Amino acid sequence: MDAPKRIHRFNDMLKSENTQSENEDCRVEQKPVNSTQLQLPGIFLDASFLAMLYRKSTLAVLLALIFLSFFGTLTVSAWMFPQNYDWRYRVISNLLSPRDNPDHYCVAASGLTLTALLMLPFAGYLQRQLGVIAPRMAAVAAGAFTTGIIALICASFVVPQHTHDMFGFRRVHEFLGRSAAGFLAFGMLSSCWCAWKGRERSSFAAGLCWVWFVVTLLPLSGVFVSECLLILTRLEPSWATPVRGLLRHSVFWHLGFWEWTGAAAVFAFLSAAVFLMPSSEESQSETESAVLGSSPLTSFTLQESADKT
């Protein structure tokens, strides 16, 4: 009688061990999903969206829309301007002024706002492309571009005030407009520095830096010279009459000419960034190969393999 009981107890122990092993297997299979795994689809969607946004085809479409929204709407607004609008002598703010352009200043303001919104992806594109060469300066350039674009949007909403103060200030629009121009110029100069730094390591940066230098330094040098002459005429009243008499009928003396020239320079700068820059993968691989090829360890390894062969 003892033997059957022992056999029965042994079978019960085997069954309990099998059930425990099955429960452990189920626990192993039903591990909790990590929180990072739940975020992977969102990260993948963000990465795919940015990859699609930073394609050359997408950026070329944005450039075409920027050209139409800025030059197109401002040309239409200038054509409907009450007086004769000559872009060489009149500033862009005249098109945004309710006093100077009472019926169609909203057209110019809407076009300028849309232009600034379409320029926002280019700040991230420049940081992504130039970050391979100089990450910190590329971040500075992207931040300057973003700040300038935000100031440009604010300048398009805050129309020129000729009679009423805004927030206790008279020239808020002029301050925002000059801030936008200053930050955009600083972003362009920072991008030029990145391209100049990477001209020896990357082939695209060598040609790009010269194009960027031309479209950036020429308008800035013209504005600098004209502002210096203006300050000189204020400090030395005896020089005011000959300088103004010499440059009164010249377009280089008027701020409107430099505003339109600067706008064209920004558009040319962004166009060069799109059409002269390779894709981010190509620029990164090219820079890495150039860095590895110039390192002493890589050259020693290549020399050792050549000696062995």
Query: What is the count of helical runs?
Result: 12
Q: What sort of overall outline do the alpha carbons produce when their principal axes are compared?
A: globular
**How many angstroms separate the termini?**
83 Å
**Helix residue percentage:** over 70%
Number-wise, the strands total 0
Spell the H/E element sequence.
HHHHHHHHHHHH
- Average residue pLDDT: 76
Low confidence ranges: 24-45, 283-309
**Cα-based radius of gyration, to the nearest Å:** 32 Å
Q: Please, how many domains?
A: 1
Structural class: mainly alpha
The biggest sheet, with number of strands, parallel, antiparallel or mixed sense and barrel status, is:
none
Per DSSP, what share of the residues sits in E-state strands of 2 or more residues? under 5%
Task: Spell out the key features of this protein.
single chain, 309 residues, mainly alpha, 12 helices, globular, disordered C terminus
How would you describe this protein?
This protein is mainly α and 309 residues long. The chain has 12 helices and no strands. The chain has helices at 2-29, 35-53, 56-79, 93-96, 105-130, 135-157, 172-197, 203-235, 237-247, 255-275, 280-294, 296-308. The radius of gyration is 32 Å and the shape is globular. It starts with a helix and ends with a helix.
Entry summary:
With 309 residues, this protein is mainly α. It has helices at residues 2-29, 35-53, 56-79, 93-96, 105-130, 135-157, 172-197, 203-235, 237-247, 255-275, 280-294, 296-308.
Layout: helices, strands, pairs:
Elements: H1 2-29, H2 35-53, H3 56-79, H4 93-96, H5 105-130, H6 135-157, H7 172-197, H8 203-235, H9 237-247, H10 255-275, H11 280-294, H12 296-308
